[in-house]
Amino acid sequence: MITDARAGGIPVFQRTESILQTRRHSRHTTETARILIEHQLCKGFTPPPRLREKYKYQTSRRIVSHIPRRFMTSQENPTPVPRGALALVFIVVFIDLLGFGIVLPLLPIFADTHVKSVIGPSASPVVSGIILGLLMSSFSVMQFLFAPGWGKLSDRVGRRPILLMGLAGSVLFYALFGYASDLENSALALTLLFVARIGAGVAGATISTAQAVIADCTPQEKRSRGMALIGAAFGIGFTFGPLIGFAALTLFPNHAGATGYFAAALSFLAFLLGWFRLPETRLVGAGFQPRKGFSLAGFGAVLSMKGIGPVILVFFLTTIGFSTFESTLALMNTDLLHLGKSTNFLLFAYVGLTLSLANGAYRPLSKRVSETAFMTLGMVLMGFGVASLGGITWLSRGLWTADQLLIPMMISLTVSVVGFAFLTPSAQGLISRRGDPERQGEILGVNQGCSALARILGPIAGLTLYKVDPMLPFIIGGALVLIMLPVMPKIRRG
């Protein structure tokens, strides 16, 4: 018996509740209840609270899970989630990114030594650059392949199990990095470094799930500020991670692998925190439709969404430009500034501190400044900051000493990183706010995958160009960012 609009659909929902209360949950009765619910949802009725909440965590949750999220909540007032979810996600991501901040400053230096030993001193510098680029980008190759799938899976099974799997993988592969760093056999060490980076990329692809948690917990008008938490966690982790790496090298100067083991221990701590404290934030009704795995068609569908595709394109190309400098920074510190491994950690810590401060400034400013304005400002700062590093490499050719180059380089790094800190959360917030609430994990996963693809191309191009001429990756990277400025008016119009 289906009621008309004047009855508000309530008798149908009462009938559904009666079915659930008086009969066993056979496949037939659950299907009957689902049909009754969906028939009324199609007519615009919302289930009463007693049906929506009473069975939320009981046996019949599989029935209520068929209710699309748009009928369970509004975009402006999302369903309340467990208290502290945002703070816990921030802490978990922060601790995990401490490990990333520990590993990144040393990886190119260790790998460069092993590559030279494997290919020999007479090999072309281009070959060396390509191998280094492939190693640095292998992490992002896996993110590109797995981020959309993790995002879709989190829409189906929940955010919490996906985040925990990613943290467990980080523990394993950071430890493998530590083991490989202590090996004297260059061929074996280089092979294990590749395995460690590939595995860490698969585990790290779950960052899109952390973004989906934030989307679950924040209304649209606060989405950009919520996304800035990821950037803040990255910045703070990237600040203290190098400092912990510096301490590890100081305590164990003869064991380079100590940095990897420290990173694994921190990721294990994040895993324990997530296991015991992290709540599930996926709203009831999200992911009610069966979803397929990774496909180019799925990528194309998201990129063709009005108001989303151009933002992802800009973020993709600007990330290529930024990653060309990011991947060469450690070698630049060693070759141009003649910094040791320990001092290199301190410079990376400065970059992380700048990133976290800029993200901290973004959150209050985002209340008064639009996302598109922040994107434009971020692109200008990034473009000129990265390009100016090319000028510094030119000055290093006998014109200025390493001591004279340090302050100009710090200024260029500051400008570049502040631009990146402004661009990233504004683009992610814009993508999330314009996207279908039922597909948050998928849309953010595609964006994360495209960002990972940019981080594949950036290190390969950047390190190859660096081996040819240290000035090239910075000039080309800065130009890639600046040429996307004419696209911003179209994005502003939505």
DSSP strand count = 0
Tell me the distance between the termini.
44 Å
Number of domains: 2
Helix content: over 70%
Supply the CATH class of the largest domain: Mainly Alpha
User: Which ranges are low-confidence, i.e. pLDDT below 50, for 5 or more consecutive residues?
Assistant: 1-13, 22-29, 38-46, 50-79, 285-293
Strand content: under 5%
Q: What is the assigned CATH homologous superfamily of the largest domain?
A: MFS general substrate transporter like domains
Mean pLDDT: 78
How would the global form be characterised? globular
State the order of secondary-structure elements, H for helix, E for strand: HHHHHHHHHHHHHHHHHHHHHH
Task: Give a description of the structure.
The chain has helices at 10-22, 27-42, 49-54, 61-64, 69-72, 85-103, 107-119, 125-157, 159-181, 186-204, 207-217, 223-251, 258-277, 296-303, 309-326, 329-335, 341-365, 371-395, 402-434, 440-468, 472-482, 488-493. The protein is mainly alpha-helical. It has two domains: 5-67, no CATH class; 85-493, MFS general substrate transporter like domains (Growth Hormone, Chain: A, Up-down Bundle), CATH 1.20.1250.
